[in-house]
Structures are given as C-alpha cells and as structure tokens.
C-alpha cells in the first residue's frame, strides 16, 4: 500500500510566515542573540541539522541565518553555532520537541533547501517554504527523469497564493487529461494524483513509500 508524506502548516509556522507571531514563550525570552523587535518575536524551534561536516541537534531561531544552540549546553552566546544555510544538506524542524511531528527539508538540484510536501517511490513534491533571504514561492515536482517547477511566481501571486487552480492546470498540461476542480476534494488529492501518475510512468520506481511524519 502506498503511503504518503503530506505535510500541512502548523499554526505556529503559519503565523511566523504571516508576521503574526504567537505570545512570547520562555525559550524566546532565554534566546541569547539580540534582534530588532519584530524579529525578536520569531519563535524558537527545535531542529536537527546535517551538513557535510557536522550533525547537530538543538534549537534555532530563523530570524536571519541559521544559528543553533546544541542540545545539552547552556543557552549562552558562546555556545551558539552558526550555519550557512547553503551548507545544510538535510534538516528537520519540529513542532515542539524532539518527539513531536516535524517538517523535513532536503537539498535539491536547484541548490536550495526545500521542504518535502509529499514523497512516494522516487517521486516527490517540494517547496521552498523556509523563505530565508529574498523569498519567492517555488514548488517543484522531482521525478526520476525530470525536475519541474509546478507553476511560476507570477501565477502564484496572480491567484493570491491559492495553489488549487495552479495544480489543476499542471495536471491537465502534463498528463493530457480532462479533469475539473470538482474531481479533487482537497489540494492533497491533487498531489496524490500527480505522484500516482509519475509512478505509473516509471514502474521500477514503485515502492512502499514513506510513512508520513505529520
């Protein structure tokens, strides 16, 4: 049976992107790095980071760069490790602690760290959710023979961030099928449809898939 990893935004993450941050938590008060007032309110998150030379489990505040306080040390400025986001090969951002649900991020061929939205066999759909630096939404389909941008930034903005009509247009164009919006109850159904089509075109890539973490 095919299992999917379909990741939805948590309330905290959504508020962080929108700039409407949650109430100040004890960890936010303890964070040793000073920021401008608006950035100071960005939540402290639990993180697992893998680079070419290092693997670190700890805490981060994504208010500029990727500073990490390793797990088990005191929260002092001298203990902060600074990572260049370009050096990160794999990362997890947890909802709360190391036993909670998490987002997965992978380094793809485009040279950016992408969040995994869904994976099945050798096909997957990703987006650049982190938004560090100058951010423009980019959603990708990564298949055995292709890496395809699902829609343009202009199209994303033209639809006010609504991905359903953009995914529907992609499905029609790529698979030459006559489907309508009513054929899919949710956006996740569209994602499943895309992955099913990709795996059907490459039988050797079929596998049991990846168990969802969220």
What's this, in brief?
The protein is of the alpha+beta class and 214 residues long. It contains six helices and ten strands.
Detail the topology: elements first, then pairings.
Blueprint: H1 11-18, H2 26-30, H3 37-40, E1 45-51, E2 55-60, E3 66-70, E4 81-83, E5 88-94, E6 102-107, E7 113-120, E8 123-127, E9 139-142, E10 147-149, H4 153-158, H5 164-175, H6 187-201
Antiparallel strand pairs: 1-2, 1-5, 2-3, 3-4, 5-6, 6-7, 7-8, 8-9, 9-10
Describe the structure.
With 214 residues, this protein is of the alpha+beta class. The chain folds into 2 domains: 95 residues, no CATH class; 95 residues. It is 23% helix and 25% strand. The protein has 6 helices and 10 strands. It has a 10-stranded antiparallel β-sheet, covered by helices on one side. It is elongated, with a radius of gyration of 19 Å.
């Amino acid at each position: 049976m095919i299992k999917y990893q379909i990741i939805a935004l948590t309330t905290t993450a959504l508020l962080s992107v929108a700039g409407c941050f949650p109430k100040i938590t004890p960890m936010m008060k303890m964070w040793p790095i000073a920021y401008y007032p608006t950035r100071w309110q960005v939540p402290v998150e639990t993180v697992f980071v893998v680079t070419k030379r290092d693997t670190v489990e700890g805490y981060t505040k994504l208010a500029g760069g990727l500073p990490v306080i390793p797990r088990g040390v005191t929260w002092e400025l001298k203990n902060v490790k600074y990572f260049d986001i370009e050096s990160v090969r794999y990362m997890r951002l947890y909802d709360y602690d190391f036993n909670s649900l998490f987002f997965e991020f992978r380094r793809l061929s485009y040279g950016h760290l992408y969040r995994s939205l869904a994976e099945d066999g050798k096909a997957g759909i990703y987006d650049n959710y982190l938004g560090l630096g100058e951010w423009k939404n980019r959603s990708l389909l990564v298949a055995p023979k292709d890496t395809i941008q699902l829609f343009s930034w202009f199209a994303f903005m033209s639809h006010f961030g609504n991905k359903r009509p953009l995914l529907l247009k992609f499905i029609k164009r790529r698979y030459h099928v006559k489907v309508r919006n009513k054929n899919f109850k949710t956006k996740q159904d569209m994602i499943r449809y895309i992955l099913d089509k990709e795996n059907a075109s490459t039988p050797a890539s079929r596998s049991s898939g990846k168990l969802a973490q969220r």
